[in-house]
Specification:
Layout: H1 2-16, H2 18-25, H3 27-38, H4 42-48, E1 50-51, H5 67-72, E2 78-80, H6 85-98, E3 106-109, H7 122-126, H8 131-147, E4 152-153, H9 177-192, E5 205-209, H10 228-235, H11 237-244, E6 249-252, E7 256-257, E8 260-261, H12 266-276, E9 282-284, H13 289-295, H14 301-311, E10 316-317, H15 321-331, H16 337-353, H17 366-371, H18 376-389, E11 391-395, E12 408-411, H19 437-445, E13 451-454, H20 463-468, H21 483-495, E14 499-505, H22 524-535, E15 540-545, H23 553-558, E16 561-564, H24 572-580, E17 647-649, E18 653-654, E19 658-660, E20 665-673, E21 679-689, E22 700-709, E23 714-721, E24 728-729, E25 735-736, E26 740-747, E27 753-761
Parallel strand pairs: 1-10, 2-3, 3-4, 5-6, 6-9, 12-13, 12-14, 14-15, 15-16, 19-27
Antiparallel strand pairs: 7-8, 11-16, 17-20, 18-20, 20-23, 21-22, 21-26, 24-25, 26-27
Helix pairs in contact: 3-16, 4-15, 4-16, 8-9, 8-18, 9-11, 12-14, 13-14, 14-15, 18-24, 19-24, 21-22
Bound molecules: beta-D-glucopyranose.
Length: 762
C-alpha cells in the first residue's frame, strides 16, 4: 500500500511539473527536440534565449548590432519588428543556411490592433463588447502579419488599469477583470485559431505579466505595490484567461512586484504562472527588462541575468544579458545546465509548434504578401468594427444623427488629419492610407450637403510637447499661423454652416508607451477654439479622438453632443461618418471610467464600500469618505454609452430568491427599444456579495449580452447565475464562494441598474 502511495505521489509530481506538461504535449515533438538539443553546444543553447531587435521599427532605446554574424554563430533565437517578407526571408536564410544546426528564427512584431489594416486601439475595441468582432480583428491581424513573414505577436496586452494618466491604457481593455478576461480569450483565439501550425496563424504573447497597469501615479515604468488578494481578484484574471486559452508565450513586465521586478520574480513566473496556472509555453522579457534590473538596483548584468533565468524567464529581449553572462554563471555555479536546457527547450518547442522546423519559410509567401494584406474586404470589416467601438457620450436635442442638416462645418486639428487616425502601436501601417474624417464625411454625404472645413488650431500649441509627441514618425502637423488667426478663420467658416462638427482631442502619440499625462484635459488651445465655436450659437457636435479617458467636465456642461471615437484605425473617417450620419447607430459602452477631474484618480466602478460610505446620491458629508471640492461620482461611469434610440428596462425578475448549493438561477429583464431607431444595447449583469469574510466590491461585472432590437421591439434578456459567478479569492487566496446575501443588478451601465436580492446558502 505504501509503495502504491509513493508511486501515485511520484506520478502526481511528474504530472504537475512543467517539464512533464511540455513533454506530455506531443511525444514526437519532444523526441525531435531532445535529439536536436543533444547536438547543441552550451553557447548554441544560450543563443536560442536571445531576442535582439533588428528591425525597421524602433520601439525602445537600445538596438543590437552585427545581427547577421550573430545569427551564423547560433547566437540568436529570434528577431522582432522587421517589416516585409523579403527582409524576413533573408534573415531566415542566414539562420537555416549559415548556422551550424540550421535552427530557424522566430519573427515577432507588435501587431497590436491590426497589421496594415488597422482596427481601433484596444481600449476602443473593448468598447464594442463584441467578442466575435474582437476575435475577428485579431484573426485578420494574424492573417495579414503571417502573410508578411511574422509568426509571433506581442499581443494581447491585458493589463487592467484604473489610471487614465497612464498612456498605455489605450493598449488594454480598460478597468474590468471579467470583461478583460473575455477579451483576452477572444484575442488569443483570433491570433492562434485552433492550429498554430497553419501558415495564417501566429503565436500570441500575453503581456505585460504582471500588474503593469497599476503603476504609481500613472507614470510609465514606475513602481507597483499591491496586496496579493487584490492581484488575484482584480488584476490577474485576464492573464490567467489568456494562458487558459492557450497563449503560446508570456511577456514579463517592467515593474516590480513585492520588491522584485517581474523579470526576476520566481514567485510570479514559476509559482503562479506555471504551477498554479499550468502555463507550458515560454516567457520573454519586455524590451531590455533584464538590463534595467541593474537600475532597479539588483546587481550587475550577470547577477540580474542569473536571477531572471532562475525565476523562470526563457528569452531575453534586447538586453544581451543571457547571451553575454550565462556561460560564466554556469561555470560559477550560479545557474544550472538544467535551467538553461529548460529555457532552450521551451523556445524550440514554440518553433516546432509554429511548423518552422518543417518549413522555415512557412510565413514567407510573396503571393500571400501581395494578395492578403490591406485588402478591400479587410478594410470593410475594419470599418464596421470601428463603428462599433465609438461611444456616444452626450446627445442633447437629438442633434445626432446629422440628417438633413444642410451645411456642415468640420472644424478642428483632427478634421482633415490622416496621421493620427490609427493611434499608437500601428507599427506596420502606412498612415497615409488612413481615411480622414473629412474624406469619410465627403464620400458618405456626396452631393446631399456641403462641407466647409477649417483647422481652427493645432493639436497642441506647446512646441516642446509637440516635439515629444511626434517622435514615432506620426507628425501632428503644425500650422504656423497664430492661434488667433486660425480661430478667426474657423469662426468665419462655421458661421456659414447649419451645424458644427468639432474634431478635437489628442494626437495619437499623446497616449501609448512613454506617454503619461498629469493633465487629462483637452489641450487649452483646443478648448479656446471650442468656446469660440459655441459662442456662434449653432449646434455643436464634438467628435473626440483620444487614447484614454479625458476629463470632460466643462465640455459635458457646455457642448450639446459628444461622440468619443478613440483612434479607430485605417477606416476611421468612414466609420465615424457612418455613425454621424446614422447609417450605424452607436452602441459602444465605456470600459474605463471617465473621471470628473484628475484628482479623483484612481476612480473605478468596482471599488470597495469603506467603513464610511456616502449615502446613495449624496455629496459632501463630514467624516465620510469624500472630497470637499468634487463629488465621488464619475463623469461617465463604466459601461456607459448612449444610442440614437432609447432603451427601457423593465423590472428584474429572479427565478428564485432562496437558493441552496450548486444550483443555477436566472435573472431576467425586459428590454424595450422605445425610440425611433433600430439599435443594439449591451445589457450588463453585476453582482454584489453583501457579506463576506473579506471586504467585497460594491459591484462586479459577471455577464453581458449585446442585444439588437428594432424600433418598438421588446425582448426578455436572461442571465444564468451559478455559484461560479459568486467565487472570489479569500484571504488564504482560496477561490470559493461564501453563503449569504447577494444583490443581483442588471442595467445599461454600472450606475443605472435594476436590483434584486438573493439568499444563497451552502
Ligand atoms: C513594450 C512592449 C513591446 C516591446 C517590443 C516594449 O517597450 O513595453 O509592449 O511589445 O517594447 O516592441
Amino acid at each position: 500500500m505504501r509503495g502504491l502511495t509513493i508511486v501515485i505521489m511520484l506520478f502526481t509530481v511528474i504530472l504537475c511539473s512543467p517539464l512533464y506538461a511540455q513533454k506530455a504535449d506531443d511525444p514526437k515533438m519532444n523526441q525531435f527536440i531532445t535529439n536536436l538539443m543533444s547536438k547543441m553546444t552550451l553557447e548554441e543553447k544560450i543563443g536560442q534565449l536571445n531576442l535582439p531587435a533588428a528591425g525597421d521599427i524602433i520601439t525602445g532605446q537600445a538596438a543590437s548590432s552585427d545581427i547577421g554574424k550573430k545569427i551564423t554563430e547560433g547566437k540568436v533565437g529570434g528577431l522582432f519588428n522587421i517589416k516585409s517578407v523579403s527582409k524576413i526571408r533573408n534573415f531566415q536564410k542566414v539562420a537555416v543556411e549559415g548556422s551550424r544546426l540550421k535552427i530557424p528564427l522566430l519573427f515577432g512584431m507588435d501587431v497590436i490592433h491590426g497589421y496594415q489594416t488597422v482596427f481601433p486601439i484596444p481600449l476602443g475595441l473593448s468598447c464594442s463588447w463584441d467578442m466575435k468582432l474582437i476575435e475577428q480583428s485579431a484573426r485578420i491581424a494574424a492573417q495579414e502579419a503571417s502573410a508578411d513573414g511574422i509568426c509571433w505577436t506581442f499581443s494581447p496586452m491585458v493589463d487592467i488599469s484604473r489610471d487614465p494618466r497612464w498612456g498605455r491604457m489605450s493598449e488594454g481593455s480598460g478597468e474590468d477583470p471579467y470583461l478583460g478576461s473575455q477579451i483576452a480569450k477572444a484575442m488569443v483565439k483570433g491570433y492562434q485559431s485552433d492550429d498554430l501550425g497553419k501558415n495564417n496563424t501566429i503565436m500570441a504573447c500575453v503581456k505585460h505579466f504582471a500588474l503593469y497597469g497599476a503603476i504609481e501615479a500613472g507614470r510609465d515604468y514606475n513602481t507597483v505595490d499591491m496586496s496579493r488578494i487584490r492581484m488575484y481578484n482584480e488584476y490577474f484574471p485576464p492573464y490567467k484567461a489568456a494562458v487558459e486559452a492557450g497563449a503560446g508565450s508570456v511577456m514579463s513586465s517592467f515593474n516590480e512586484i513585492d520588491g522584485i521586478p517581474a523579470t526576476a520574480n520566481k514567485w510570479l513566473m514559476t509559482d503562479v504562472l506555471r504551477k498554479q496556472w499550468g502555463f507550458t509555453g515560454f516567457v520573454v522579457t519586455d524590451y531590455t527588462a533584464i538590463k534595467e534590473m541593474t537600475d532597479h538596483g539588483l546587481g550587475d548584468l550577470q547577477e540580474v541575468s542569473g536571477q531572471s533565468l532562475r525565476a523562470g524567464v526563457d528569452m531575453d529581449m534586447v538586453a544581451d544579458g543571457f547571451l553575454t553572462t550565462l556561460t560564466k554563471s554556469l561555470a560559477e555555479g550560479k545557474v544550472t545546465k538544467a535551467q538553461i536546457d529548460l529555457a532552450c527547450r521551451r523556445i524550440l518547442e514554440a518553433k516546432y509548434k509554429l511548423g518552422l522546423f518543417e518549413d522555415p519559410y512557412r510565413y514567407c509567401d510573396d503571393h500571400r504578401a501581395q494578395t492578403e494584406i490591406f485588402t478591400s474586404e479587410n478594410r470593410e470589416i475594419a470599418r464596421s468594427i470601428a463603428a462599433q467601438s465609438v461611444v456616444l457620450l452626450k446627445n442633447d436635442n437629438e442633434i445626432l444623427p446629422l440628417k438633413n442638416k444642410g451645411t456642415i462645418a468640420l472644424i478642428g486639428p483632427l478634421a482633415d488629419n490622416k496621421e493620427n487616425m490609427t493611434g499608437t502601436w500601428s507599427v506596420a501601417a502606412e498612415f497615409s492610407k488612413s481615411v480622414s474624417l473629412l474624406t469619410g464625411l465627403k464620400s458618405a454625404i456626396g452631393n446631399d450637403a456641403s462641407i466647409l472645413v477649417a483647422r481652427g488650431t493645432n493639436i497642441v500649441n506647446d512646441s516642446i510637447l509637440d516635439s515629444r509627441i511626434s517622435i514615432f514618425g506620426k507628425p501632428t502637423y503644425r500650422d504656423n499661423r497664430s492661434q488667433a488667426a486660425m480661430i478667426a478663420e474657423a469662426v468665419e467658416v462655421a458661421k456659414k454652416s447649419d451645424v458644427i462638427v468639432a474634431a478635437l482631442g489628442e494626437a495619437s502619440e499623446m497616449s501609448g508607451e512613454s506617454s503619461s499625462r498629469s493633465d487629462i484635459n483637452l489641450p487649452e488651445n483646443q478648448k479656446e477654439l471650442l468656446k469660440a465655436l459655441l459662442a456662434i450659437g449653432k449646434p455643436v457636435v464634438m467628435v473626440l479622438f483620444t487614447g484614454r479617458p479625458l476629463s470632460l467636465t466643462w465640455e459635458n456642461e457646455n457642448v450639446p453632443a459628444i461622440l468619443n471615437v478613440w483612434f479607430s484605425g485605417t477606416e476611421a473617417g468612414n466609420a465615424i461618418a457612418d455613425v454621424l450620419l446614422g447609417k450605424v447607430n452607436p452602441s459602444g459602452k465605456l470600459t474605463a471610467t471617465f473621471p470628473q477631474n484628475v484628482g479623483q484618480i484612481p476612480l473605478y466602478y468596482n471599488h470597495k464600500n469603506t467603513g464610511r460610505p456616502l449615502p446613495e446620491g449624496a455629496w459632501f458629508q463630514k467624516f465620510r469618505s469624500n472630497y470637499l471640492d468634487v463629488s465621488n461620482e464619475p463623469l461617465y461611469p463604466f459601461g456607459y454609452g448612449l444610442s440614437y434610440t432609447k432603451f427601457e428596462y423593465g423590472d428584474l425578475k429572479l427565478s428564485s430568491s432562496q437558493v441552496k448549493g450548486n444550483q443555477a438561477i436566472t435573472a431576467s429583464i425586459t428590454l424595450t427599444n422605445s425610440g425611433k431607431y433600430d439599435g443594439s444595447e449591451v445589457v450588463q449583469l453585476y453582482i454584489r456579495d453583501l457579506v463576506g469574510s473579506v471586504t467585497r466590491p460594491v459591484k462586479e461585472l459577471k455577464g453581458f449580452q449585446k442585444i439588437a432590437l428594432k424600433a418598438g421591439e421588446s425582448k426578455t434578456v436572461t442571465f444564468t447565475i451559478t455559484p461560479e459567478e459568486l467565487k472570489f479569492y479569500n484571504s488564504d487566496l482560496k477561490y470559493d464562494w461564501e453563503p449569504g446575501e447577494f444583490a443581483i443588478m442588471v442595467g445599461g451601465n454600472s450606475k443605472d441598474v435594476k436590483s434584486a436580492k438573493i439568499n444563497w446558502i451552502k
